[in-house]
User: Fold this.
Amino acid sequence: MNGYLQKMRGQGQSPPRVSLAEVCWSWLGSFLGIAAVALLHYKLLDQQGLMLLLGSFGASAVLIYGAVRSPLAQPRNLLGGHILSAVIGVTAFQWLGMYPWLAAAVAVSASIALMHLTRTLHPPGGATALIAVIGGQSVHKLGYLYVAMPVALGACIMLVIALVVNNIPKTRKYPEFWV
Assistant:
């Protein structure tokens, strides 16, 4: 038991502070990415009762604009993680929606397992799966359209902005890999 508890103390040090330029590029990318998705959401889609803006995109922004070298931030992970998790989340709700606690647990855990198996692990994908279950009528009535819009379309918009912004400074390169 003592060895188990000792593991919780941690061994490493905090990561080094990033430069002010890195902070600024992360800010700019995340601002433009979320602004583009939100602008399309509020100006075009919301008026028709459709959606494009998801909370899980905020977490994706941290990765694809703030941790550009992370394997979890690469295009394969961004797109695959969100899309596969959306499919799992919609399916979990459709099969188990009468037990929301079970649908939520299955959606998140199955999406993590599938992302591992497909090498597309992207932590915000777990939130995308959960939103499919707890998102309410506006999400539930979309059914599998939720996978295409808002999930795939929103992730693609953010990816295009990440490709442009993250390659402007000489100190950044994105992506590290595609497949």
The longest helix spans residues 20-45. Residues 92 and 98 are 10 Å apart (CA to CA). Residues 20-165 form one domain.
